[in-house]
Write a structure and sequence with these properties.
- There is one protein chain.
- The protein is mainly alpha-helical.
- The chain has one domain.
- 90% of the residues lie in helices and 0% in strands.
- It is built from two helices and no strands.
- It is rod-shaped and about 50 Å long.
């Protein structure tokens, strides 16, 4: 039963990590957009950093769950 729970949590963390990665990439593009306001670009750059932190966190948790499923 624990293996099944860990498998579900692995999938959830993987999906969340992928979502954070997509958001990060979108924010990076906004931050690079010369037509956007400086405040918008700065906010997007900050958000991209937060998204990167979330991406790494979810990916790390997914890796832990993946190992737990193996054992």
């Amino acid at each position: 039963m624990e293996t099944a729970k860990n498998a579900v949590k692995y999938v959830s963390e993987t999906v969340q990590g992928t979502g954070a990665e997509a958001s990060k990439e979108t924010n990076k593009q906004v931050a690079k957009d010369d037509d956007a306001k400086v405040s918008t670009r700065a906010s997007a750059a900050k958000d991209a950093l937060v998204d990167k932190k979330d991406e790494v966190s979810h990916d790390t948790k997914a890796d832990v769950r993946k190992e737990q499923v193996k054992h």
